[in-house]
Every structure is written in C-alpha cells, then in structure tokens.
C-alpha cells in the first residue's frame, strides 16, 4: 500500500477538471448536439409534410383533371347538339326562303303574265278598232266610241 | 539474471517520489521514510497532462461548436459526448447538471490514463533515464518514472473518494440527514432491534463502493502493466507476445474506463432514489 499525499493532489486535480468540464465543456457541446438534433428532426418532419402535401396535390390534380374531362365531354356534347340544332334551323330557314323565293317568283310571273295579257288585250283592242275602221272604211271617233271599246276590251 | 530481472521490474514499478525533508525538497530514495507527505510526481504529472489534453481538446471544440455540419474533430468529440449522455440518461432519470460532465470527465480521463499502458514499457523510463544521466548527471537507475497513472492507487482512490463524497452529498441532499440515516439503519431488516446489524451491513455496502471502484481499476491496470513488464524481460520473443497483450488491452482499457463511469452513474442514481 502506497497511499500518500498524491491522493490529495489527484483529488484537487479531479475536482478542478470536473468543474471545468461542467462549466466550459459539457454545456456548449451538448447544446450544439441537441440543437442539431432538433434541426434534423424538424427537417425530416418538414420533408414528410412536403411529401404528404405532394400526395394531396396529386390527388387534387387527378380530381380536377377528371372534372375537366367531364366538363369537356359535356361541352362537346352541347356543341354537337347545338350544331345539329343550327343545321336544322338553317335548313328550315333555307326551305322557308326557298318557298318565299318560289312564291315571289310565281307572283312575279303571274303579274308579268297579267301585264302581258293586259297589253295583249290593248293591242287586240287597237287591232280590233283598226280592223273595224277598215271594215267600216271610215274613221270612227275614238273618243266618241270609247265606251264601246272599253266594253269590248273588258270582254276580251 | 534473476536479480537483474527483479530489479528491472521493481525499477519499472517504482514511482518518482518527491518530499520535503530538513534539507529542502528531496526525491526518490531520500523519501523512503517520508511517510504520507510524499508526492508521486510522475502520477501527478501524467494525469494532469492527460487531463489537460482532454479538457483543452474538448474545450476547443466547445468554443467553435457549430450546430450545422460539424467538422471531423467535432464529430469525434460529439460521439464521445453523446455516448456518455446516452449512458447517463439510460441509468439516471433525475435532473442533475453535474452527473453528465462528471461521467464525461471520468470516462475520457481514465481512458487516456489507461491508454498510457500501450506505450511500450521501456520508452518513457529510458528517455527519462537518459535525461537524468546526461542532463542532470544522475545515475539512470535512480530515475524512476511510471507513466500509467491508473496503476497508482492514489490516482484511483482520488477518483473513487470524489465519487464517494458525491454519493453521500446527494443521499443527504435528496433524502435529508434523517432519510439517509434511516436508509443506513432500517435496511434490510425493518425492525428497531436490527438497527446495529443493519448499520454494519449498510456501512459495509456504502464503503465497499469506492473501495471496489478504486481497486478494480487499479488492479486491472496494475496487472496489465506488470504483465507488459514481464513480457519485456523475455528477450526477442517478446515482440509477438507484446503485440497480443497490447491487442488484448484494446478491450481492457476502454472497458475499465467505461465500468468506472457506469458504476459512478449507477451509484449516484441510487443515491438519488428514495426507498
């Protein structure tokens, strides 16, 4: 056994070292470790959250895409319907127009014919008067006999 | 040869002593009768140098400790600190600002002191002998230096007595003087008639803690060192044998440091527990 004053010296050294470690070594190092651990944990949590958000956004996009597709189909359907309707309407309109044109054509033809006929009548009246003049070989006063001529014309 | 070997071993196991005599400060052989008031210069010197290496290294890291990406030294230091911190948290569940830094100091300091065991046994005494012979004109056989502080009982007892006082301090602080006395006298047999028996049993338990702490560390390292010295006496064949023994100390050295730290934590956590 060789216990001597070294024991006291070493005890003092031990106490001083422990106090130094407690004051100046341990707190900053463990503080740095814990802060970094926190940073890393926060980072991991943020990453996880971002992944979840991404998943959510993907689902959202999918739903929106589906909706958009449905809407597009609806629009196309409506457009097709409208197209058919428009064609029908146009056809109807064209038919009406055609009929109108045909009717007006008929009317014009009719009036033309009437006019021609009227002219013809006049000319026939003139011819008849001329003929009658010739037959009577004398001049008949047209004014005097116009009532008769008119009657004749009306009879034609 | 036998006498040579004996004196060689004895020389390697003798501390460099210093004492104060009537004719001033004296060393070594002049101190054989100095009794208690003798200092082991080698134990004090090596242990303080190693302690300073530990504290200054860790302090330099602590000063520039960044919470971002750590450097390599910071990583190494943080691994040690984290290891100690985990060991403390696993065993000790109270709140105490002392236990973790205490454990760190014990672990690293004891580890460094034990690690001196790996330095080949002749290196330091030979260098010291040459310095003594040519620098100070001494007989090299009178120059003693033992470089493993934990092979000196003064060192291991200084540590364990420090721990022992902390055990008593925290026992009284947490349980009060009465609570501590009750723990000493009413266990394991809770009856007034057994108080003396209990007291003897519990005192032995209490005293056995620092004694076993100190002797375990001392015994392991002293034996290891002794075997290193014995190996060094067997001639050329010592090289492979020395290598094997040094490799075995890869286990012993950290393990003894760890056991010392762990038992310190366990004892202090027991001191905090109320029965």
UniProtKB/TrEMBL annotation, chain A:
The chain crosses the membrane at residues 6-26. Residues 47-126 form a coiled coil. Pfam families: ATP-synt_B (PF00430). InterPro entries: ATP_synth_B-like_membr_sf, ATP_synth_b/b'su_bac/chlpt, ATP_synth_F0_bsu_bac, ATP_synthase_B_chain. It is a single-pass membrane protein. The keyword Transit peptide does not apply. It comes from the Bacteria. The keyword tRNA-binding does not apply. F(1)F(0) ATP synthase produces ATP from ADP in the presence of a proton or sodium gradient. F-type ATPases consist of two structural domains, F(1) containing the extramembraneous catalytic core and F(0) containing the membrane proton channel, linked together by a central stalk and a peripheral stalk. During catalysis, ATP synthesis in the catalytic domain of F(1) is coupled via a rotary mechanism of the central stalk subunits to proton translocation. Belongs to the ATPase B chain family. This is ATP synthase subunit b.
UniProtKB/TrEMBL annotation, chain B:
It comes from the Bacteria. Signal peptide: none annotated. Its main location: membrane. SUPFAM superfamilies: F1F0 ATP synthase subunit A. CDD domains: ATP-synt_Fo_a_6 (cd00310). GO terms for biological process: proton motive force-driven plasma membrane ATP synthesis. The keyword Transmembrane helix applies. Keywords: ATP synthesis, Cell membrane, CF(0), Hydrogen ion transport, Ion transport, Membrane, Transmembrane, Transmembrane helix, Transport. It is found in: Cell membrane; Membrane. GO terms for cellular component: plasma membrane; proton-transporting ATP synthase complex. One of its GO terms (molecular function) is proton-transporting ATP synthase activity, rotational mechanism. HAMAP family: ATP_synth_a_bact. Belongs to the ATPase A chain family. Key component of the proton channel; it plays a direct role in the translocation of protons across the membrane. This is ATP synthase subunit a.
